[in-house]
Amino acid sequence: MPKISIIIPAYNVGKYIEECLESARNQTLKDIEIVVVNDGSTDNTGDVIAQEASKDSRIQVVTNHPNMGTHRTRMAGAEAATGEYSFFLDGDDALKPDMCKQLVQELSLHPADVLHFGITVVGANELLDSEREAFEANNNASTQDAVGEDIIRDIFDESRGYKVDWRVTQRLYKTSVLKQAFAAMTKERLGRSQDGYECFVVSAFAKTYHSCKHCRGYIYYYGRGISGTSTISAEKYAQYCHHFKADFDAAYDFADTQHSEMLRACAQGFQRKATEILANDWKIRIPENEKLSAAQSMSDVFGPAIAGREIYRFVRDDAYEKLSEKTALLPNDRLNNWFGIANSFEVLPSLEDTDSLRFHEMKRIATSHMLDLVTQSEQAEQIERYNNQRVRLFVTTHKNVNRFESDIMQPVQVGLHEGSYRFPWAFHDDEGENISDRNPRYCELTTQYWAWKNVDADYYGFCHYRRYFDFSDTLHKENPYGEIMDDYIDAKAAKEYGLDDTNIERVVRQYDVITTPFGDLTKIIDKHGTPRALWEAAPLLHDDDMLRCYRILCKMYPDYKEDADAFFTGNKACFCNMFIMKKEIFFDYCSWMFPILEEFDKNTSYSDYSKEALRTPGHLSERLLNIYLMHHKRIGSNWKFKELQCVHFTNPEPAEELKPLDMFDKPIVPVVFAADDNYVPQLTTTVYSAMKNADPTYFYDVVVLQRNIAWDKQERLRDFFKQFPNMSLRFTNVERELSGYDLSTNNAHISIETYYRFLIQKLLPFYDKVLYLDSDIVINGDISKLYNTDLQGKLLGAIRDIDFLANLNVKHGKRMGYAKNVLKMKNPYDYFQAGVLVLNTKAMRERYTIKQWLTYASNPAFIYNDQDVLNAHCEGEVLYLPWEWNVVHDCGGRVGNLFVQAPNDIYDAYMKSRNNPKIIHYAGFQKPWTDPDCDFASIYWKYARETPFYERLLKRVVKANEPKIPEEALRPKHERAVGEDNPIRKIVDPLMPIGSRRRAMAKAIGRAVRGRE
């Protein structure tokens, strides 16, 4: 028995097989055999093998007819081997002379079933040396010895990080173990990932593993044959996918025959790692125009979750690299194509499906990187456009604010210090030559100084994140402080005030100096009369500071004294440090003004100054600007002046933007409510009832759309709902979205909040489906089941409105005519109730814009406003849900008086749903918090009394039902204030029994309401 068998599979390697066999024959260890298997070669491989075999009796030749592939060829070689140990040598590789001798010496010191040796890599076909070195270093990385199941787990267990590679040709095997393993392997032909499968099975049988990477007698020619980076077609890639799938299936089959969960887990690890390798071919070897087709093939074989995850992986990695290198994302960048392909895979989140969870986690990270990259690219492009402008209007800001679409108006961030977040969309006043550290005193002057020292332009202008020039030709109304007041920085404001680049440049280039208006101080700003009086009236400014600055000015620039005197005793001034100047004027002004402030600064101790007083240099500069301009008017500099009104925006901050939740260990159910500050107790009850009955295996993203809910109430709600770890509670202000629309309701029981549901498709763009619920309901069912309704492509899911349908049948009623003539419904009996909706927000975004929805909702002819809008524009696109998901209560006896007039089947279905309502809707004027004896009220109070706003609801009950007690009805203290027959007793006694603490609290509330406490 020879010590070592060298097994050489050979297929069409006529150019290399002679070198390979010669290197085997010339081993210094003579006790070897060479088993060469000719796998049906069609070139001269067989002739060369025969020639070499004639020279050495140790060469044993096996011939396959027909070609059987590498796996079956290795199997034949293993069957033929007779040595104590065996290893595989590819027909286009070679060995150093002492390779076998080194291996035997290592075995004598470390006997093992598997000996893992190193390799020497030789570059072929003009391979880059750096690529060769990286490949060699990777395959020669040290690994740890192992025994038992650790052998296979170190290679294939994902949790161990794939510590060891699975290259079959880089291992010496005990031949008996190799034969046992190949006998247990599939006899089917395998493809490219066969190494992984073969290593998987052999490692399962091995008992001991030893690493000797210092033994590097195997010469691997990297680049010979088919290169790992050569281009392949999408069709060829599809074949690879099927090959890999066959290898994975074989690994799972082997694990199942061994009845081993550990082996099955390792088979899964093999699949995941090998799929990454296969996907790398998609990235590197598939032409861009065939990538979509290849990706679809990968999805067809492995499923969209696996294929999508791999492509998102490439997006993640490449996007992160660009972010790190601050490289712009160009429109034709291949990354855009990859991201689009990955986004085409639709995978539903599932707790039970780990592939789904892995897909969504990778999608989240990749999407985040892409958004950051797009933002970075846009910002880099914006900065370049900024620098190309010759008219530059700098906007000083210290906070994140909305900005106009403009290249002329350029933001500059001030107030920076160590650890500050630096706005990537802004210039920064601490770059270049600057006085950024003086910002607490100099305010917006640090922007002016930075622009003076670092920017080249024809015109330099300055305004603030709240205040802008009005470049329009319209005279706008001003407040007593000489400002135009507006709310939001948006496209509407840009149009109103001429804040577009074309108009701004047109206006600016006509003048030398532009300022805010010189207002009459006898009429504006509390009518103090003069700039001096105005300063002295400021409670936090020091009178001596103005006087000292005046003296410094007169000393440094005596010719300005006349102008300073005229200014301080006059009644005109412009404010806000807003101006636009030609370059030469601006530079002259800065050279004049900053030395004055520096001298003032040098002689001022600010240690006792308040925060506002600390800003004195900024206040002084406003006065100095006036004096500088007055001087040049007096001396006849012949500058062309223009005064523009100042627009003050009260809400410059960006609209709140909801972000996707970082939550992928549970499928998410997005649930949206709408409420105002007054409705918080009802909202709390509704959400609480939902969470009490919600499936805990889901995570609920609860979003409240609102405009005025007090912060303390929001905090109280967040704290209360911490008891549910499977939910988040988020509030978002929608006031900006509704600005400019004439929204009102024609029903006293419908609030303006009813329109908020139209905003959902925009405010939550990352959800394709959302559950909307009114806040006057309680929920007895599991809302995840409602959310998981298959909408079958419809715009929304809803429950028919029995109230409306009954009104359609009222004799001589007008509802049918309204439905047909105003709502234009083809079938009015399809009218649905909008308090419970499963919204297909993806489809709704494709069909209607927010502007369209809100324009429709502004129609004063509608009775039920948003509900009518939805019915009018969604007819035929509605999936009707089971009645029990929106059971309206019996308000004012309408069940017996009105609902009975509904179509028979409708009425029966509604009545049946009352027996087991999953959602009870208190629609109409009668509510549990106004009439605690109303239909289904006891169910409402069951939830309400467990919330932190229970007492507020009780107060509303008492207030709504408080009797007017005449003087003569007042009784002595020992008599009961409310008689046995008084109707209020029927309301109060069940909720607040006599003698209870609740009763006492209600009395105290009642007295407070009447003003007696």
From TrEMBL:
Gene3D superfamilies: Spore Coat Polysaccharide Biosynthesis Protein SpsA, Chain A. Transmembrane segments: none annotated. GO terms for molecular function: glycosyltransferase activity; metal ion binding. Residues 393-632 form the DUF4422 domain. The keyword Metal-binding applies. It comes from the Bacteria. SUPFAM superfamilies: Nucleotide-diphospho-sugar transferases. InterPro entries: DUF4422 (IPR025536), Glyco_trans_2-like (IPR001173), Glyco_trans_8 (IPR002495), Glycosyltrans_8_dom-fam (IPR050748), Nucleotide-diphossugar_trans (IPR029044). Keywords: Glycosyltransferase, Metal-binding, Transferase. Residues 5-164 form the Glycosyltransferase 2-like domain. The keyword Cell inner membrane does not apply. PANTHER family: GLYCOSYLTRANSFERASE 8 DOMAIN-CONTAINING PROTEIN, LIPOPOLYSACCHARIDE 1,3-GALACTOSYLTRANSFERASE. This is DUF4422 domain-containing protein. It comes from Bifidobacterium pseudocatenulatum.
